[in-house]
């Protein structure tokens, strides 16, 4: 049951991303991407990471994508016909690189077929929080400083002269 | 759940390949390049969470949390830079931003 749900969510995720990277307008691409990030959050929940699933919905789908949408609407880009569309010769190196990634994955999966591993272990939030604040407390401080620097930098870049 | 780890890795690598293709194909549009980078970072997060669930250690989830903090800082700075460049040249086409001739 859960495995079936996982494959359905994977199909939704990959289809949404495929539509997002081929959309003609950036706004449509953002909307497709929000859909696929919701599917990704459910996949995180199925993999036993409820906290990361909540953060995916709150931070990614709720904040970062809305920030993208806000900036795209604020810029008042010219009509989508005038924006440079990628032609076939632009897609060719992209397809080549993506094919290289997929081909190496296929080679890797075909080379060693090991036994099917056991199911996933669910990590309780208590263990997650314990590891975060006991073991990686310094990293939390560094991340807070990084967010402060990003705030200062964004204010500096966005100031009016 | 009874999905093998390799299937999670297949989904993550397909996602990464699509993000890479987006960055390479839309290299004339700054916003679509940023979207491709987001897709690639999400693929890495899926790999981290899958490994964390496979081995039963919380470290993978921790690093995906760090990755989210990194992404929010990166996106705020990059979008501020997009707004700044759009104010100067009135376009988001990367070919116009060639004053360093790079």
From TrEMBL, chain A:
A Pfam family it matches: Oxidored_q3
Keywords: Cell membrane, Membrane, NAD, Oxidoreductase, Quinone, Transmembrane, Transmembrane helix
EC annotation from Swiss-Prot or TrEMBL: 7.1.1.-
Catalytic reaction equation(s): a quinone + NADH + 5 H(+)(in) = a quinol + NAD(+) + 4 H(+)(out)
Topology of the protein relative to the lipid bilayer: Multi-pass membrane protein
Keyword Oxidoreductase listed: yes
Tree of life domain: Bacteria
GO molecular function: oxidoreductase activity
Family annotation (InterPro entries): NADH_UbQ/plastoQ_OxRdtase_su6
Transmembrane helix listed as a keyword: yes
Transmembrane intervals: 6-23, 30-51, 57-75, 95-116, 136-157
Primary localization class, coarse: membrane
Localization terms from the record: Cell membrane
Function: NDH-1 shuttles electrons from NADH, via FMN and iron-sulfur (Fe-S) centers, to quinones in the respiratory chain. Couples the redox reaction to proton translocation (for every two electrons transferred, four hydrogen ions are translocated across the cytoplasmic membrane), and thus conserves the redox energy in a proton gradient.
Family of the protein in this entry: Belongs to the complex I subunit 6 family.
Protein name: NADH-quinone oxidoreductase subunit J
Species of provenance: Geomonas subterranea
From TrEMBL, chain B:
Organism superkingdom: Bacteria
Membrane topology qualifier: Multi-pass membrane protein
Reaction equations catalysed: a quinone + NADH + 5 H(+)(in) = a quinol + NAD(+) + 4 H(+)(out)
GO molecular function, one term: oxidoreductase activity
Signal sequence, renumbered to the chain: none
EC number: 7.1.1.-
TM annotation in the entry: 6-26, 33-57, 63-85
Keywords tagged on the record: Cell inner membrane, Cell membrane, Membrane, NAD, Oxidoreductase, Quinone, Translocase, Transmembrane, Transmembrane helix, Transport, Ubiquinone
Main location: membrane
Subcellular location: Cell membrane; Membrane
Database matches in InterPro entries: NADH_UbQ_OxRdtase_chain4L/K, NUOK/Mnh_C1-like
Oxidoreductase keyword on record: yes
Key word Ribosomal protein present: no
Family as reported in the entry's similarity comment: Belongs to the complex I subunit 4L family.
Biological role stated in the UniProt entry: NDH-1 shuttles electrons from NADH, via FMN and iron-sulfur (Fe-S) centers, to quinones in the respiratory chain. The immediate electron acceptor for the enzyme in this species is believed to be ubiquinone. Couples the redox reaction to proton translocation (for every two electrons transferred, four hydrogen ions are translocated across the cytoplasmic membrane), and thus conserves the redox energy in a proton gradient.
Subunit structure: NDH-1 is composed of 14 different subunits. Subunits NuoA, H, J, K, L, M, N constitute the membrane sector of the complex.
Name of the protein: NADH-quinone oxidoreductase subunit K
Gene transcribed to yield this protein: nuoK
């Amino acid at each position: 049951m859960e495995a079936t749900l996982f494959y359905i969510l994977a199909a939704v995720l990959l289809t949404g991303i495929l539509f997002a990277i081929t959309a003609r307008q950036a706004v449509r691409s953002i909307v497709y991407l929000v859909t696929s990030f919701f599917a990704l959050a459910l996949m995180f929940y199925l993999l036993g990471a409820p906290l990361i699933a909540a953060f995916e919905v709150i931070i990614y789908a709720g904040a970062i994508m809305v920030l993208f949408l806000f900036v795209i609407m604020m810029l008042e880009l010219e009509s989508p016909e005038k924006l440079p569309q990628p032609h076939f010769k632009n897609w060719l190196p992209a397809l080549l690189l993506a094919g290289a990634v997929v081909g190496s994955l296929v080679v890797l999966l075909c080379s060693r077929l090991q036994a099917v591993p056991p199911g996933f272990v669910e990590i309780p939030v208590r263990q997650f929080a314990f590891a975060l604040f006991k073991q990686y407390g310094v990293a939390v401080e560094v991340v807070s400083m990084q967010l402060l620097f990003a705030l200062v930098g964004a204010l500096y870049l966005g100031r009016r002269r | 759940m009874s999905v093998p780890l390799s299937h999670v890795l297949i989904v993550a690598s397909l996602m990464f390949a699509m993000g890479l293709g987006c960055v390479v194909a839309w290299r004339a549009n700054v916003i679509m390049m940023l979207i491709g980078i987001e897709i690639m970072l999400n693929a890495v997060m899926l790999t981290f969470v899958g490994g964390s669930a496979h081995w039963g250690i919380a470290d993978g989830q921790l690093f995906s949390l760090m990755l989210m903090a990194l992404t929010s800082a990166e996106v705020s700075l990059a979008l501020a830079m997009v707004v700044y460049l759009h104010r100067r040249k009135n376009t988001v086409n990367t070919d116009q931003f060639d004053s360093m001739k790079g």
